[in-house]
Specification:
The protein is an alpha+beta fold. It contains 8 helices and 14 strands. Helices cover about 35% and strands about 25% of the residues. It starts with a helix and ends in a 6-residue tail after the last strand. About 25% of the residues are buried.
Length: about 300
């Protein structure tokens, strides 16, 4: 027997003063309401309601039990309201994982604005380039780039970015007109864990495709370190525009070959697949969608279900 439901039926019978009226208000058969109350009485071992052909009477036990049932049902309704955030407030602790460079460039500087907007939310941020299992590590939202090949996740595109080539003003003088003629020893490389070789730089214009293999003295596995080296005049770099936009805007770096097209990358907000998305997660993803300017906001706002990883 569902005791909470039986209590609700009992309370409705008392409030309506009739089994039949209670049945109508609950959209149940009269026999179902009667059986529900009788099962509750059997469970308690007492008689709650006496009735004749015209009236209902609460027994002493019924008079004692009725206000207690009202209190319990009121508490349940209040608890459900809090969980559903019917007051419109977003609350709770939010766990976020983001790549280090993106966190420094976009996410972390904006977090104060988010917590000001939602003061009942606290955000814990993990900056890492080694993605972890969201469910195992209790991560609410992870920021990933391009492909998310893990099971039971949903990804939403939040930011589109392109590679740009740039360098300090003193390092960009007298460069050739075409990237194909660049001296590769001037180019600083971005390396991955395997293979530990600098990634090629790609440029497209009309039907022409050019690749440059960096052979400079410095290579890093961090975009932050690469940008810092360029700011110090160590060489030319090829990084995602999000990491150098402000430096280009204030003249510390100069963008090169901007009449050529470069590769595009997309960042995603990734969450565990669930039937009910917490309000704090929805609020933060909506907030992330506000951060890019119009040119870098993804065209589609629809959720993309992530395919399971290949084993």
């Amino acid at each position: 027997m569902d005791r909470l439901w039986a209590m609700e039926v009992f309370v409705r019978v008392v409030e309506c003063g009739s089994f039949s009226k209670a049945a109508t208000s609950l959209d149940l058969a009269n026999a179902t309401v009667t059986a529900c109350v009788r099962n509750l009485e059997k469970h308690l071992g007492v008689t709650l309601i006496q009735r004749n052909t015209r009236h209902l009477y609460l027994t002493d036990e019924g008079n004692l039990f009725f206000p207690r049932c009202q209190e319990v049902l009121s508490s349940v309704t209040h608890a459900e309201s809090e969980i559903r955030a019917e007051d419109g407030k977003v609350r709770g602790a939010l766990s976020l994982e983001t790549p280090i460079s993106l966190g420094h460039a976009l996410i972390c500087p904006a977090l104060n604005l988010f917590t000001q907007r939602h003061p009942l939310v606290s955000v814990s941020v993990s900056l890492t380039n080694q993605p972890r299992d969201l469910i195992k590590h209790a991560i609410d939202i992870a920021i990933r780039m391009d492909h998310v090949e893990e099971g039971d996740l949903v990804a939403k595109p939040i930011y589109e970015t392109r590679y740009v080539m740039c360098g300090a003003p003193d390092r960009v003088r007298d460069l050739p007109a075409r990237p194909a003629d660049l001296d590769p020893t001037l180019c600083l490389g971005l390396i991955s864990d395997a293979p530990r070789e600098p990634s090629e730089w790609g440029f497209h214009r009309h039907d022409e495709h050019v690749t440059v293999k960096p052979k400079g003295a410095l290579n890093f596995n961090s975009s932050d370190a690469l940008v810092d080296a360029a700011l110090r005049g160590a060489g030319l770099i090829y990084v995602l525009d999000i990491f150098v936009k402000r430096h280009i805007a204030n003249g510390l770096l100069v963008q090169l070959y901007d009449d050529w097209t470069t590769s595009e990358r997309t960042f995603y907000a990734v969450t565990a697949k669930t039937q009910y998305v917490p309000a704090k997660v929805r609020a933060f993803i909506d907030f992330l969608m506000e951060l890019p300017d119009a040119q870098q906001r993804p065209n589609s706002r629809r959720l993309v279900e992530v395919k399971k990883a290949r084993r």
